[in-house]
Specification:
seven-stranded mixed sheet, 4 domains, alpha+beta, 14 helices, Neutral Protease, domain 2, 24% helix, globular
């Protein structure tokens, strides 16, 4: 699955430069011999291209500007066409003789596009490049236009013969069939016999670690020796490959490689993943991003995405990787709640769109919809069909569409065939419609009908604009004298609907959707204050402290700029002495222990069990001294619209650049504490949510009964 930034970039190139493309009727085969000159950022390529017998004799292609291709084969004529736009691609026309299906071209030139941030939220580390060749490493993808590309959806097979400096090695799709280290160079050959969407070439002075099991080679390419780290990833790779083969079907490639990149990335390519140096050393990555990238070899790099109808792959991968791992840890409900909160805070207020329009992540709103909503689509479908039919549908979809483009409609048909249920209306409302249902529990009362019989009557409303959603709403009722709650579903098809449940004991408490199984817009009371609300705000006021040292003033001013790149739509920065009081119509973040408005935070924080003093912060029983620490907390202003109000303070000016880099990655939390100049995270957590508006209490201090323990998704 090519990175979203590069997918959109490449698609834009073709739409800009090729108004009409002649489609070939069979895949193209490239046999490329590549020489790289790192100091000059240049590449020299000899490409033997083979078309099928029924291919057009006249076609156009794109190649990076300045590479100047020339044909070495009589009967193959290349013509340079007029440029359109200012992109990196040059357009050419190829004319082949009637009896010619194989020809050779040669080209050389510079490919060097320095890394740059993209999207509004650059502070989250969204950086990319169309292509880069240099001493720090090589990154070439389809978006680099480093090989001739004849159409947007072209499928290719290829052989790469790569000549590299001594001590260097390369990674691409497929299998490495040659690896020779000579005194002054390295020569390698990569071969892909499966159809690919594009050709990748990554290179650096890697240290390699290898292991083979079950016909699949697992490889680790690090930029420095680290056998302990490599062994952790080799073990995890084997474990995840086994799990997903049992769940979905045979792994579609002969290798999987973890490759350390020279900038921070989380890219999933066919048969390898490209992760940044810091990313791969984070302890939680082995149980989060890493299985996600491995699974992309089934979804996105195994079954390809038909982007014309939306990208289903990211959400399905998130559900079967990120969510499944949390489910195995007994934390599936927490993961769903956090995902729904991201949607509510980032996307629901005017930045939503239907899944048919999702192509890839470029900010938090697109991530909340494209990953979060799609993930919940599959979770709700699983709950309706049952695990056996759900898994059978996934396996059939994988078998039928491997190495082909597939859309949401193809997924729907696979699930219909394995479950015997018609799912057109279900997919239509979740894929084609923007927005989300918003549930309200209007009323609930107990009606006693007999000595051992009770009726629980309650009314639900959907308060979102537009038509009602068809929902299977989970209901849990805590009963007198019973440890286990009574659980069931009610079918809701109207904007407002009355329900009754007959019970054999007196109800003590009613909970609607207690484990966050529905995709919906959460009520404010269901969510703890979190930095998602701050970063997703429309208007943010940043208040700087005036009474600090010059070095601290400079550091805070730069940190304020970092906050502006974390997602808010409009950001205003003021010094604390410019404000007599704080406005109530926007999100606010106060910076610095010395901030003259700090008292406005103390009451709100005390309601969450935190005490803010001049020299320390206490959360529960944990005290964090001001000295050598940085803290970040968010609460809600108690009047008006319950807008977020945050306090961020640091003792060391040198800690603020690191805090600016790290804070966006902790956006789901309510409070954080860091230490040192780096700084290192020491404490993180979310404020407690005590009462949901989707809960009705019929007895004082009624604790919820135990909910049925769920088994994570697995093959029986």
């Amino acid at each position: 699955m090519r990175p979203a930034y590069l997918s959109l970039l490449l698609l834009g190139f073709f739409l800009s430069f090729i108004p009409a493309v002649e489609a070939t009727e069979s895949p193209v085969h490239h046999a490329l011999t590549i020489n790289l000159e790192l100091e000059h950022h240049s590449i020299h390529v000899r490409d033997k291209i083979t078309f099928g017998a029924k291919s057009s004799r006249r076609m156009t292609f794109l190649l990076h500007r300045g590479l100047e291709p020339r044909s070495l084969t009589k009967g193959a004529v290349i013509e340079t066409l007029e440029m359109q736009g200012d992109g990196i691609g040059q357009r050419f026309r190829l004319q082949l003789a009637d009896d010619l299906d194989t020809f050779i071209i040669e080209y050389s030139g510079v490919i060097h596009h320095p890394l740059e941030g993209y999207g509004k939220e650059q502070a989250r580390g969204f950086r990319g490049t169309p292509g880069l060749i240099g001493p720090e490493g090589v990154y070439l993808a389809g978006s680099s236009l480093w090989y001739p590309q004849f159409e947007v959806n072209e499928r290719v097979r290829f052989q790469l013969d790569v000549i590299l400096p001594a001590g260097w090695s390369s990674v691409s799709q497929g299998l490495r069939e040659l690896h020779e280290r000579e005194a002054n160079r390295t020569v390698e050959r990569w071969v892909s016999r499966t159809l690919q969407e594009e050709i990748y070439l990554v290179a650096a002075p890697f240290v390699e670690y290898n292991h083979g099991s079950g016909g699949i080679s697992t490889q680790i390419f690090l930029r420095q020796p680290d056998e302990g780290l490599a062994n952790k990833y080799l073990e995890a790779t084997g474990r995840y490959l086994t799990m997903y083969q049992q769940l979905l079907g045979r792994y579609p490639y002969t290798k999987f490689a973890l490759v350390e990149n020279f900038w921070e990335t989380g890219f999933g390519m066919p048969s390898f993943t490209l992760l940044g140096s810091k990313v791969i050393r984070l302890p939680f990555i082995l149980n989060s991003s890493y299985p996600h990238e491995i699974l992309h070899n089934w979804w996105g790099n195994g079954v390809y995405v038909d982007f014309s109808g939306g990208n289903w792959s990211e959400g399905l991968t998130a559900y079967l990787a990120d969510h499944l791992i949390r489910e195995q840890q007994g934390r599936g409900a927490d993961y769903r709640q956090q995902s729904l909160q991201k949607y509510t805070d980032y996307a629901a207020a005017g930045r939503d769109f239907p899944l048919t329009e999702f192509r890839g992540r470029h900010n938090s709103a697109s991530e909340a919809v494209g990953y979060g909503k799609t993930m919940m689509l599959f979770h709700m479908l699983r709950r309706q069909l049952g695990d056996e039919s759900f898994i059978a549908g996934l396996q059939q979809f994988y078998r039928q569409w491997l190495f082909q483009n597939a859309a949401f409609g193809d997924l729907r048909r696979s699930f219909e065939q394995t479950s015997g249920k018609l799912l057109g209306d279900y997919f239509k409302q979740w894929v084609n419609r923007s927005g989300a249902p918003a549930l309200v529990l209007d009323s609930a009362k107990i009606l006693k009908t007999g000595s051992e019989s009770y009726r629980l009557a309650f009314r639900l409303s959907q308060t979102q604009p537009g038509e009602a959603y068809m929902l299977q709403v989970p209901v849990a009722v805590t009963l007198e004298g019973r440890k286990q709650a009574h659980q069931s579903f009610v079918k809701m098809t109207q904007k407002q609907q009355q329900f009754e449940i007959t019970l054999t004991a007196r109800p003590l408490r009613l909970d609607i959707d207690p484990e966050f199984d529905l995709f919906r817009r959460l009520a404010l009371e269901e969510t703890p204050p979190a930095f998602t609300q701050l970063f997703g705000s429309n208007r943010l006021l940043v208040v700087l402290p005036r009474a600090v040292t010059p070095a601290m003033k400079k550091a805070w001013r730069r940190f304020a700029d970092d906050l502006g790149r974390m997602g808010p739509e409009r950001v205003t920065v003021k010094w604390d002495d410019e404000l007599k009081s704080l406005p109530e119509d926007r999100a606010i973040v106060l910076l610095g222990w010395e901030n003259r408005h700090i008292e406005t935070m103390t009451t709100a924080l005390s309601l969450n069990g935190a005490q803010l003093k001049a020299d320390s912060l206490t959360i529960g029983k944990t005290s964090i001294p001001r000295d050598n620490h940085a803290v970040a907390l968010v609460t809600r202003y108690s009047s008006g619209k319950q807008l977020p109000r945050a306090f961020i303070a640091a003792d060391l000016p040198e800690s603020l650049p690191g805090l600016g880099r790290k804070l966006p990655h902790y956006h789901k939390y309510s409070y954080l504490a860091f230490s040192g100049g780096e700084p290192e995270n020491r404490i993180k957590g979310r404020w407690q949510v005590d009462r949901s508006p989707l809960t009705a209490m019929f007895a004082e201090n009624g604790e919820r009964g135990k909910l049925a323990k769920r088994k994570p998704l697995h093959i029986k």
